Each structure stands twice: as structure tokens, then as C-alpha cells.
Amino acid sequence: MAATLPAWFLSLLFCCILSRGYDVNPYKECAPVNCSGINIQFPFSAASSPELCGLFKIDCGGLSSPTTIKFLDKSYDVKNRSYPERTINITAPLSDFFDNGNCIFFLHKISLPDHIEGFHLPSSYVNISIFYNCDNHSLLSNQETIWALKGCEKNQEIYCTDKQEIVNNLTPPSACSWIQYPVLESSLKAMKHGNGSWTLQELSKEGIALQWEQFPSECSNCTSSGGRCALNATDRRTTACYCKDEEACDS
């Protein structure tokens, strides 16, 4: 999945704006939110927060509901996030993992859009190629670097590989379709250690990590000085440092 910086990301201006004088108090309304142990702050914000609090809305759910984020009208469960590494780990909704072995239907649910504005895949993650809709005697089963995924219906042959050079030189049987799916390196090692014994559902539950684009260093300086980093209330395009009680923020 390739991603490019939005044009306005490249021209982010940074200013210090006092929180008083707006319909909402950005310093108060954009305070970090705890969603089931996941700390939510800029560039994310809770679904109930004002629009200027973040670029990406996260629904905190509830006691029995997962924390979710939506990309292109499709919801994903949020497993965790790391602000120092600028990564968010997401999975398909838990309900999607119970399809009675119907892996073909499941593959459509776990795939990501080709492009998510503001995000890219970290270099530490690996793309695997998943071949599906293959017949029971697929030539793929004879490839040493391609292994079968378990847990699918008997008439569904699913194969995968992390060797891009194999994919580049391979002509899959006409009965096969394929997608690329990013996985954690640790997940891939665990699956290989088990000789491909993981089911497709188990692999998917490990999640996908996305990295959001770098913001100006002033945003970190704003937070460390006691301010709140959020969108500029005037144009909703640039970032701003909102201060408490009209005190100046050193950004």
C-alpha cells in the first residue's frame, strides 16, 4: 500500500494561539482521552471531540465494544498505538474472524485500501502475497517458498509467500487470484516456525501497523511545554499550539 503526503502536510504552518475567544476551548476539549487503555491525542481524537482536535477520529466504543478507527467508511479495531514510533496497529473487526472457514469471504474483509491519506506502511513490516481461489491441485503447492494456510474450507486452497522475487517471476494458475497483505515481522516468524500451521484468521488477528506522517517538531515542543497541539481553529488546515488560561506556550 503506497501513500503520499497530502499537499497541505508539506506546507504546515505552526503558530501559538490562545485558547480563549473561540466557541470551544481547544485546550480543554482536545485533552488526551483514554480509550480502554489506549491514549488518544493529536493527530488522533475521540469521535466525540471537536473536529479541530485531530485529523483521524477514533471511536472509543464501550465496555463491551472495541476501540475503532474508520478508513474510507470501513471500520478497523485499534489494538495499540505508539506515538514515539508514530504507528497504530489495527485489525479487521473481531466479528469478521468467525466465518466458518470461508477464507475467500474473509480476505475481502481484511484487505486495506490501496491508499490511506496521511499513512504509510513502516519499513519494518513485511508484505506477504496471498493466493486464493486456487484449485485443489495448484502448482503453487510445489513451490518450496510458498506455503499453504490452514483453516479454510476443503475446496478453498490458500497459499502465501513473503518472497517478492518469487511473485515477480511466478505465473499463478489461471484459477488463482492474489492480494498483498502487510504483516508484522514477528507474526511472519511465528507462522514460519510453525511450518505454516497458523490459520488465516490467526495471522490476521495479529494486526496491521500503519505509520502516520511526521508533523513539525513544534508539535512535540508544544506538548512538552504544557500546550495542546491541534488544528488551527481559523483554517482547520495548519497546526496550532493552544495554551491554558492565556499563558504563552513555548513552541
Would you mind describing this structure in some detail?
This protein has 251 residues and is α+β, with helices and mostly antiparallel strands. The chain folds into two domains: 1-86 and 213-246, no CATH class; 99-112 and 123-207, Alpha-Beta Plaits, CATH 3.30.70. 18% of the residues lie in helices and 30% in strands. The strands form four sheets. It has a seven-stranded mixed beta sheet, with no helix packed on it. The chain has a four-stranded antiparallel beta sheet with strand order 11-12-10-13. A hairpin with a 4-residue loop joins strand 7 and strand 8. The radius of gyration is 22 Å and the shape is elongated.
Outline of the structure:
The protein has 251 residues and is an alpha+beta fold. Helix content is 18%, strand content 30%. Pfam families: GUB_WAK_bind (PF13947), WAK_assoc (PF14380).
